[in-house]
Inverse folding.
């Protein structure tokens, strides 16, 4: 199962709206077939692994990180192919999270006389598909908020200079995340101030969908992310900007998503729902302070990733997060630290909302 999980991770950021899944076929203690779901519309992991095994799959054991599917989409259901392959046993990491199909694949396998075990390395298997689970159960992508700050909580100087608060090792880690997440999102302020590409600069990596929250459609057609054409650029607006701006951006290659106007917190919820409907299951949010505040107030951050650099900017610098209207400490969002790591000269601190951890316990 550990091998299947490692194979499944190769699909992260590439399979949406489907989950990332890995599979191996084992016969007489040897792996004879390997596979992972490479992208939506292509064969699922267990089919790839069974094809790799060929005749050696008869009487073997199939290890799959996710329950074989029973529904038809761009590809036929996998459970029939698993049954006809002649495998003797199927070991599953976790069952399908969708309430209408969960367990159906396992029941079909057992009905066909195949021995089934489930819940093997289940925590890791659920982690692999956490974006898919989030969309199925909550109607929105899994959200990681990335923040890079000085020791005194500033993301830029008073003049707006922010390149670079954190070091090269921290930036390399962010490029790894861009490779693994379906989409990367910034606010219009960050897009205008930094003119970022938001691409993945890793050898063999892939670029995420690049998303700008831009109610007034201020992004210029000469923005680097529009000029480079490496991956899709989605601009989310509330429809109140002049139509000519939308036409110009669309002519420059952007896809403009119009989300019904609403107050900040409600709009964030609607935006996340729309991104899920467009097929995104995981979202890396990289700025700025206003977007961070809106997500925190709405309680829509699943994981906080804070890079803290060993420098001081001062109180006149740009704060890590805008005002949230907190007047009492008892009302402040509480976070639980789940991991720490030294990244070059910086420190990476990973947090979850303490209230979220209590609800999941």
């Amino acid at each position: 199962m550990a091998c299947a999980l490692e194979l499944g991770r190769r699909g992260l950021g590439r399979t949406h709206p489907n989950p990332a899944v890995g599979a191996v076929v084992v016969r007489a203690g040897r792996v004879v077939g390997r596979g992972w779901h490479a992208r939506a519309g292509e064969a699922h992991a267990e089919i790839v692994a069974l094809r790799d095994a060929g005749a050696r799959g008869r009487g073997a054991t199939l290890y799959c990180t996710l329950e074989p599917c029973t529904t038809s989409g761009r590809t036929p259901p996998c459970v029939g192919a698993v049954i006809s392959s002649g495998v003797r046993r199927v070991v599953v990491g976790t069952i399908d999270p969708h309430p209408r199909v969960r367990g159906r694949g396992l029941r079909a396998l057992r009905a066909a006389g195949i021995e089934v075990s489930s819940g093997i390395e289940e925590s890791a298997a659920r982690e692999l598909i956490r974006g898919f689970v989030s969309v199925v159960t909550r109607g929105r992508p899994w959200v990681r908020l990335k923040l890079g700050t000085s020791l005194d909580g500033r993301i830029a100087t008073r003049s707006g200079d922010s390149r670079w608060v954190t070091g090269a090792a921290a930036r390399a880690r962010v490029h790894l995340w861009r490779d693994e997440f379906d989409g990367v999102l910034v606010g219009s302020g960050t897009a205008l101030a930094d003119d970022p590409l938001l691409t993945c600069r890793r050898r063999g990596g892939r670029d995420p969908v690049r998303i700008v929250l831009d109610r007034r459609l201020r992004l210029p057609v000469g923005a680097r992310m529009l000029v480079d054409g490496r991956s899709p650029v989605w601009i989310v607006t509330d429809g109140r900007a002049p139509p000519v701006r939308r036409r110009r951006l669309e002519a420059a290659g952007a896809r403009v998503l119009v989300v019904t106007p609403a107050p900040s917190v409600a709009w964030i919820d609607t935006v996340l729902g729309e991104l899920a409907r467009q097929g995104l299951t995981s979202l890396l949010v990289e700025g700025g302070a206003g977007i961070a505040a809106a997500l925190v107030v709405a309680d829509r951050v699943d994981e906080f990733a804070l890079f803290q650099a060993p420098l001081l900017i001062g109180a006149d610098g740009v704060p890590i997060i805008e005002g949230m209207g907190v007047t009492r400490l008892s009302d402040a969002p509480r976070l639980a630290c789940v991991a720490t790591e030294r990244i070059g000269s910086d420190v990476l601190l990973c947090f979850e909302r303490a209230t979220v951890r209590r609800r999941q316990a």
Notes: The chain is about 30% helix and 25% strand. Confidence is low (pLDDT under 50) at residues 356-361.
